[in-house]
Amino acid sequence: MIVRLAKNRKARAWALSGLALALAWYFCLPKPLFREPVSAVLLSAGGELLGARIAEDGQWRFPPPKTLPEKYKQALIHFEDKRFRLHPGVDPAALARSVYTNYKRGKVVSGGSTITMQVIRLSRKNPPRTYPEKLLEILLALRLECGCSKDEILALYAGHAPFGGNVVGLEGAAWRYYGRSPELLSWGESALLAVLPNSPSLIRPGRNSVALKVKRDALLRRLSLAGVLDGSTMELAQKEPLPGEPYPLPRAAPQLLDTLAAERRALSASLRVGPFSRLKTTLDGALQKSVQSIVRRYSDGMLLHGIRNAAVIVIDNGTFEVKAYVGNSRDDDGTGKARAGSGYAIDLVRKPRSTGSVLKPLLFAAMLQSGELLSTTLVPDLPTQFGNFMPQNFDRKYRGAVPARTALAQSLNVPAVRMLKKYGVPRFYDFLKNLGMSTLHRDPQGYGLSLIVGGAEGTLWDLTRIYANMAHLAKGGEKKGAARLHELRILADSPDAGKTTNDLGPGAAWLTMKALLDVTRPGEEGYWENFDSSRRIAWKTGTSYGHRDAWAIGSDARHTVGVWLGNADGESRLELVGVAAAAPLLFEVFSRLPYGGWFDIPEAYLKEVEVCKNDGYLPFGGCETAKQWSPLGSNFDQISPHNKTVHLDASGKWRVHGKCEAVSKMKHTGWFSLPPGQEYFYRRYYAGYKPLPPYRRDCEADADKKKGPVEFLYPNADSRIYIPIDLAEKKGRVVFEAAHTWPDAALFWHLDGNYIGRTAVFHQQALDIEPGPHEITIVDHEGNYATRRFEILGVN
């Protein structure tokens, strides 16, 4: 009984020991097997290499491939391990032969290692060759074979074998030594890379070429004897030249590579996951290289004007995939190194810059959607001041009043600021946030009305995405359900993210695109000779204050292209004007894109509204009417303030009313009449405009006196004014300006109750005024007058 118990205890002890050994063997392999840092690798949507960055340890070590080319697999197996497909990770015959050879030579000359054992050795960083180490390699190789397929083991070897210098892995070697991917290697090239890890020091241009060629050719003969190659293929492969100086790796999107690699590293650190592998993007490889070439060539020409940097992004409006991404004009100065201060290393697609005028279409769309204007609604364009902010149009001219779509097409600042004043800065701020503008870090009051003319910063990424969403909506969006705003997809494995929105619908988006189609191309400047003028593109430019940024963003039904030009350090250049600097590049990029067509009218999202033809408001005063599209669901309810019924005498030259003329003798006619300030500028641009006839002298004009034909253009009420210093550093004068409805009317000027002069036709007075509060008054010969109170703060 005692003996039986003792035997049972021994059996259990042996069983437990065996189980412990089995468990130790099962868990003996570290996970992951290799922990070395890998190169950041950027791939196109088709798998083409666009660029790579050296690993943190200074090695060109690409992430291990999932599959290997058949030529390389055949060459590797025939050179390293002919029975690789047959053994369980250890080849007993090869081990026996190795032991015998080493015994006969008295030293280690052969290891008898299989490819699987070499993978284990590589993972252990090539420790000294000893018999205990060999035994450990055998045990670990057997375990590796239990957990991996033969092809997976080959991929591990090919991804971590040394290929000379600082090149590790087959893919890096193929690109460095042959300038192409492993799939495109010939038999001779595949054979050379199969033998190279056995003697990586042989790959030195101009040295060891004979020894390297002998090893390669011997392998090719072995492949021929095995029936893998025929004789002629072997002979041709043996005649192939050996590699020379290493090739530079592709650099088709260097800034994007750095941006994505940094994002993935941060994600890996925050989630405590392993290092990223390949960055497969949505980029079209051929288009990316074409656009990069265009940007580099164009930027080289802009260097003559002191403009060093440019960025371009191309988006598919249907999938929101980024098809081309040029983060900067180049990544070096042509010598392989970035020049100090050039800013070439900065990814300017993601860099916040002053937006200039590129937000104006979004305000136009927002006001269409909310029913606060129609495309043809007149917007005032005359000298305007809000506090210390006095916007001016780019050409320093005023048009009195312009249709909203014309103001947008001509990128007029004053109408845009007046539109924003009406819509409200906080509302527009929220609208931009909801559209996905991520750079609004101040509160709405911090931007004020300058928000619409470049007072905020935006990125080319955000703004082009917003325009692409607007183009997508203009096509009808998803055709059903609520409108949806999409995020851009730059990585192939990123989901289609987005959110539903009520802020912008297909109708307003289409009307905005239609307005942007009317932008005048500056053909007289010679920028567009090579562009297909029949191609319909909605586009908008922008120029930041101080000429530091030039923008151009355009869309057809298929693509949206965003362009930015400037200097990364913010240096100003007078040539940095959107239409002159950025627009030519925009259209050159479009010329390389397939024809995208134009947007069909989304009639299901539009309704027709009858408006006055001359001012775009709801009919009043007998105006001539026209049909105008309006977004479905909007409610434009503003009646024309400019059309009225006017009572004339029998001659039709004088206005009259019931107190001075019998109704039976009056002519009643509709008349389009703008306020004096708007009319003053409007009639300069529109020769057909007819001012209201004056009242006949025997008729009183009480009704019109309340409104008055006299209006100040400058200053605004309660202005606070600094006296300017002129170029001679002398105290300047303050220029006051007024307008009168009647072209031949004279105005009489009074300052603080004292008469100071008379003006006719052009009503301006340049005055030297002492600091303090003042009141200025103008009076016409009919007694109509206007008064402004203001304060002179001193010299500035």
Helix- and strand-based class?
alpha+beta
Cα distance spanning the termini: 114 Å
> Can you tell me the CATH superfamily of the largest domain?
DD-peptidase/beta-lactamase superfamily
CATH topology of the largest domain: Beta-lactamase
Percent range for β-strand residues: 15-25%
Averaged pLDDT, please?
A: 86
Strands of the widest sheet, in order across it, are 7-6-16-15-14
What top-tier CATH class of the largest domain fits best? Alpha Beta
**Which regions are unreliable across 5 or more consecutive residues at pLDDT < 50?**
522-530, 701-706
Shape estimate: elongated
Quaternary structure of the protein: single chain
Give the topology.
Layout (H helix, E strand, L loop, with lengths): L1 H25 L13 E4 L5 E5 L6 E2 L8 H11 L11 H14 L9 H9 L7 H17 L2 H11 L6 E2 L1 H9 L8 H9 L13 H17 L5 H8 L15 H18 L6 E3 L4 H18 L6 E8 L5 E5 L26 E2 L5 H11 L7 E4 L18 E4 H6 L3 H11 L1 H11 L8 H4 L9 E2 L1 H15 L8 E4 L11 E4 L4 H12 L20 E6 L5 E7 L3 E8 L11 H14 L14 E7 L12 E7 L11 E6 L18 E6 L3 H10 L16 H6 L2 E5 L4 E5 L10 E7 L5 E6 L2 E7 L3 E4 L4 E9 L4 E11 L1
Parallel strand pairs: 1-5, 3-4, 22-28
Antiparallel strand pairs: 1-2, 6-7, 6-16, 8-11, 9-10, 12-13, 14-15, 15-16, 17-18, 19-20, 21-23, 23-26, 24-25, 24-27, 27-28
Structure description:
The chain is α+β, with helices and mostly antiparallel strands and 796 residues long. The chain folds into five domains: 1-26; 27-238, Biosynthetic peptidoglycan transglycosylase-like (Penicillin binding protein transpeptidase fold); 353-591, 3-Layer(aba) Sandwich (Beta-lactamase); 621-698, no CATH class; 708-795, Immunoglobulin-like, CATH 2.60.40. Helix content is 33%, strand content 19%. The protein contains 22 helices and 28 strands. A hairpin with a 5-residue loop joins strand 14 (538-543) and strand 15. The N and C termini lie far apart (114 Å).
